[in-house]
Amino acid sequence: MNLTRLALFCIAALPLTVSAADRVPWTTSHLHGSPEPPSPYVLERAFPKVTFHEPLEVAMLPGTNRLVVAGLHGDLVSLPYDDHADHADPFADMTKWNPEVKECYSIVFHPKFAENRLAFVWVNLDLKGKPNRENGTKIVKFRVTTDDPPQVDLASGVEIFSCMAGGHNGGNLKFGPDGMLYFGLGDTEVPDPPDSKVTGQNISDVHASVQRIDVDHEEGGRHYAIPKDNPFVATPGARGEVWAYGLRNPWRLTFSPEGELWLGDVGWELWESIIHVQRGGNYGWSITEASRQDVRPDRLRGPTPILQPTYAHSHEEADSITCGVFYAGNKLPELRGSLIYGDWQVGTFWSLKRLAPATATEPEKVEVREMCKSPLLPVGFGLGADGEALACDHFGGGLWRFAHNPEAGQPSKFPRKLSETGLFSETAKQTVVAGVYPYETKATRWADGATSERWIALPEKTGISAATKELGVLGKGRWVYPTDAVFAKTYRIQDKTGAARNIETQVLHFDGIQWGAYSYQWNAEQTDAELVGLKGAEATIEGPKGPQTWRFFSRSECLRCHNMWTNYAPGFSPAALDQHDQLAQFTALGMIPETKSKPPEYGSLTVNDGSGKSAIPDDLNARAREYLNVNCGTCHRFGGGGSVRIMLDSGTKLSDMRILDEHPLQGTLGLPNGRVVAPGDPGRSVLLQRMATGGRGHMPYLGARSVDETGLVLIRDWIAAMPPGESSPDLRKQREAERDALAVMRKNYGLPIRPEDILPASLDTVVATGSSALDAALGLADQSIHGEFGQAVIARGASLPDPLRRDLFEHYLPAEKRRQTLGATFDRAALVTRLGNATRGRAQFQAICATCHRHGADGRDFGPDLTNIGAKYPRPALLEQIVEPAKIIDPQWQLTILETKGGATLSGFISERTADTVTLRQADGTAAKIPTTSITKTNTQRISVMPEGLLASFTAQEAADLLEFLSKP
User: Fold this and answer.
1) Distance between the two ends of the chain, CA-based, in angstroms?
2) The whole model's pTM is what?
3) Strand (E) or helix (H) holding 509
4) Has residue 764 got a pLDDT over 50?
5) Which of 6-10, 164-168, 319-323 has the highest mean pLDDT?
6) Looking at 201-310, which runs of residues are DSSP E strands?
7) Among 225, 341, 612, 793, which residue's beta carbon has the most beta carbons within 10 A?
8) Measured between alpha carbons, how far is 801 from 820 in angstroms, rounded to an integer?
9) Looking at 286-290, 553-557, 624-628, 957-961, which range is the least confident one?
10) Contact (CB, 8 A) for 937 and 901
């Protein structure tokens, strides 16, 4: 939004003195529902006359027609399994058994209940303000009376099992067909840092695992026995109760009709897991998350191999999985035998149907289908007397069943054109209708040179409210949006002539259950825009520097940023709106609740001279942190899903961002002794390399693909203002020489000169190393390197065979002079079938791969020898290895970082380990033998040293040539 439009917004559109009476209602919306077909199922309220207090689990009382409902706070009730029931009868109050009971997670009845009347209840005691409590989780055995209605005899309670309570406690009790009691326990910790008690792979305790015990026998002073066929009974130091392990927070267990154990494991950053549990199975936590995302690969592993989950949902569609039940009813016969489960955070339900069992070479095959979306918070499930699945809505207090959706198969009425949305009175002119209000954010994302304009529209005169309850990671006071709330943003860009054209209008819509993100692509005539498909699209547009590719992101990609961790609309928040009286104006209009914006506590580094002064000017620190927040902080934040655990959101203090002098987990990208941020040394900062490159490793991963020179200079200045970090004398000397050489050349070539007068040797010096090349790229960005000298630097850098340095310069060339590269996404099948030339491929290998790998007589012995790689992998699999280098990594090629007492840091692959020494194969081809007594820290990571996106900056022919060469022996 330009200053003129902003002034109109503040003065004309919203006078300084306004009230709710001045607000114009928005009545023209056609944004309802979703573009996708209606869901096949809907939810119907069971027992509509009865509301329960935060129900967690339901179970039929054996031998009766009564349903028992367990409430979170220890109150259990029962009622007839009849939808005409108008009240529930008390069944038990666990606080009367023990006043310290804070939570009740589960109840289960003994398989021989008719004979012994035994029930088993899971309770957690009050933590008393502490993060954990020893023996605070208890499983208690009670007898149930024969009264009508029956109740739990609290005086009969016998504690049979106890363990630590706090954080992730896991969550319920199930008897297996073998008569044994199974229950799952979490890692007893808060989400971050992950698994701080390091219990995930440790079977010497019972946490982060599934237990199996025999409650019909007693031994060793316990009120239960450990079954002799449990997998770790004979393992030294292990808890014999453990049945499976490596679980973060197993929330709900169930048994299939075949008697097999299944559970849902609540994920961390990216994945939610449904697991068919194997005896002795290790499911990876906290080394990995769902065997897909490395978390702490340096930690010791348990005694059995890591297994993959049966099915994993990404955090694009799920946030906190709740395992359910196997459907056994007659109402929906097509679901019989399918696992019904849901997500506590997003309210979506799925069915999982087993297609084929696992074999020696193939995993179990399943089919997962979305059943429906809902506003519920499904925290538990159960089966009714008729086999119908019941879902517990935790906060709503209701029980729900599934039914066929009568609208299934009907076409969606969601608007396919922007002009049909009801947002604009004149779509071509972007004139909004009454009731749609513009707004501006404090900072905006870089969008490949495009500018944007934003609006908010709330139906009728509804307003945003402040939440009175916490919801997962979202606290009280967060903004809660009304159904059919809409945000819209139009991107426009100027071409070489200065003419501005609309490219895309993005719409964020809340349907009352979930948020949907949609893109409308403007037509060539600039009269209207068409809805982009589910998977997104790409188009070539005319930008300020000529033709450029514009990416219309898929709907799931958009929701990577617009998710619950950012309260879905991160750009419309108190902090983002805290300028130009916007908060006051929207509050006066009744559109938002009265909210005070707290200034971010960015924190800063202080000068190490005892003065306590900040090394970074406050204004520079604030601008840099806001830039990182909007461009990077949606992923790189707690829960954001960034694959690297750095925190770039504005809510994290500088000292807690995990970037200062930190080793980059995914490689240094050619920077000598590179760090995520090397304080005082931008040229060694991988964060800047990722921002500056136009090729592999470019960040942000989702968003703009071109380099934001203004933002790059801002972050460069921010890093340069920091007190220098520690580095070796040799490295400091090298960096000083590189900077001095560049300064001299800037001075020597500062006046207009002819390109032929620029010495080639000088140009080679400028781009000699990764750091000097990055320094030069930063000079181009701030235009301290410019004119004919700048053009010569660009030409030399863009011609380099090393892509890590070349990609810093090539994007400065005119579009017609750049290589036509594959980019981030390409047709793998077409590339596999493209004819390649092995001779040219060898040259590609020598220029790019030979620094780490050997192939015949070429290369260096650092990474795996690729001489016969073509015999090991067929061409499609070989391509997959290059495109996804971290997908499969042999343990011997896991990167290890060693730190010594002398302060040295070495990285490479461990080739030999003895009691006295560790031999590390390094990237320069040498082997370092380090005495174990001098090693202070070892960090082994299941990541690939090979950069991701290796082929992004290759042309199709170059990639085909490399494949051809690697395929040959």
Assistant:
1) 59
2) 0.72
3) strand 500-510
4) yes
5) 319-323
6) 209-213, 242-245, 250-255, 261-265, 271-276, 288-289, 293-294
7) 341
8) 16
9) 553-557
10) no
